Amino acid sequence: MQVEYDGEVMTLNMGPQHPSTHGVLRLELKTDGEVVSDAIPHIGYLHRCFEKHAENVDYAGVVPYTDRMDYCAAMNQELGYVLAVEKLMGIQVNNRVRCIRIIMAELNRIASHLIAAGTYGNDIGSFTPFLWCFVDREDILDIFEETCGARLLYNYNWVGGLMFDVKPDFESKVMKFVDKFEPHVVALNKLLSDNYIFIKRTANVGIMSPETAISYGVTGPNLRGSGVKFDVRKDEPYLGYEEYDFDVQIGLGEHGPVGSCWDRYMVRIREVLESCRIIRQAVAKMTPGDVQESIPKRLKPPAGEVYMRTECPRGELGYYIVSDGSVKPYRVKVKSPCFTVMSAFREISRGAMIADIIAILGSVDVVLGEIDR
Amino acid sequence: MKPEEIAALLGETFGAKILESKLDSLNPWSMVEPGSMLEVSRFLRSDARLLMDHLETLAGVDYKDRIEVVYVLYSMTHRHRFTLKVKLPREGPKVHTVESCWAVANWHEREAYDLLGVVFEGHSDLRRILLPDDWEGHPLRKDYKTPATYRDMPV
Known about the structure:
By secondary structure, chain A is of the alpha+beta class. Chain A has a single domain (10-372), classed as Cytochrome-c3 Hydrogenase, chain B (Orthogonal Bundle). Chain A contains 15 helices and eight strands. In chain A, the strands form three sheets. Chain A has a three-stranded antiparallel beta sheet. The two termini of chain A are 34 Å apart. Chain B is of the alpha/beta class. Chain B has one domain (3-154): Beta Polymerase, domain 2, CATH 3.30.460. Chain B has three helices and nine strands; from the N terminus they run H-E-E-H-E-E-E-E-H-E-E-E. In chain B, the strands form three sheets. Chain B has a five-stranded mixed beta sheet. Chain B has a two-stranded parallel sheet with strand order 6-7. The longest helix of chain B is centred in the N-terminal third of the chain and has 12 residues, at 3-14. The termini of chain B are far apart. The A-B interface holds A 43-44, 47, 49, 51-52, 55, 87-88, 212, 214-217, 228, 230, 235-236, 304-307, 309, 316, 318, 320, 322, 330-331, 333, 335, 339-340, 342-344, 347, 372-373 and B 25-27, 53-57, 59, 61-62, 70, 72, 76, 79, 83, 102-104, 106-107, 115, 128-132, 139-140.
């Protein structure tokens, strides 16, 4: 978009303390009136030296740190790490562990997308969906709490197994939740997704072309919102996702060009229904077994390196781990999906109005804990 | 393409500029001579057989006697992956930026500069990204000592 600037350019700092930046992010906006000619993200306010800490604790000790990166989807974060270490050590887990991990990861994906959708509505000026989403998320957190005692930061996935087996009524509770939740998505669509004002605010805003998305390494719902059919669960399956029947949802551009804020938002809404499908299948596949049978006595991977990526709610999360054969990782590098999408932010927000910056930022759904690590 | 085929193709095209390859690793890689990194990247990015259009991650690793920069690449078109590495001296590590091939390299390289002190020549905006601009040292170096204070505040 070509914008003519004749007035005086003003620098405006949005954040680091701002309710709509979803954490401590500072956007340096160069504005000409209401038009933003440049939006430069400044990150690092939440940097907690994850990668340095990981070099100083043993392999099992890293798991709680991974929880604290993306605290909205901690199950998925630790899952990526334990899968990477298991790949490095050549550990195979049994069917029960795989099924529980998938159920937990998908439940956490739903919870995370509910936060994304709810807070996005809130950013745009619609408060009720926020409460509706949080009511459903609460049910998921109750299931997590019953299983592992924590509501947000679980330390549940261990290398080679799980911290605890699930409670006997776990399956029925999960199915009860899924049955109750699916109709709620229809209601949410009526209330928010198909709302005329919401569409006006989000369609045609923050368009990200597929080429831009791939060049900036954008992944997950943001990439699929641009119409690229790519999902690590389908294209590089792990945990036996290849046996599950689900569709990869992409942005279709019902309201304007593909890759708009509305498309990115809508991909998430469609994805939670796919997650429900996966959960139903995983519950049916569950078999009895010992969830700790493959946990190694000594966690000492052989020297070598591994790159493992998984599909997190916010995109693909990669762990590059170098082992020198000792009990501590030599190097852990995290490829954070939010980090890469934030690097594309400047590109997709150029020429937008100030109010649209909020809409764009909400639609890419970043968690600053994961960007800064 | 399989990693073996990619490594063979690189060896064929660049000869001695590919220093070594390790293909039995869980993450197969080839070591590129630092001066040719940009050339090899351009080839991987644009050759129709490879089309590595997705830079998954860029990691710097301090091995005490050297610094390695690791480029994990993936092709969205052909659905194959490969890893490139460059070996740099610990004193004054320098390699050319690959920003022109993958836009995301801009931030990844800033991170590697910030945390390991690798200088990416020709980079459009090489500043610290996670740490404050006036921070001293590069924390992911193995010999890094955490300072006692930062601007008179205890760390």
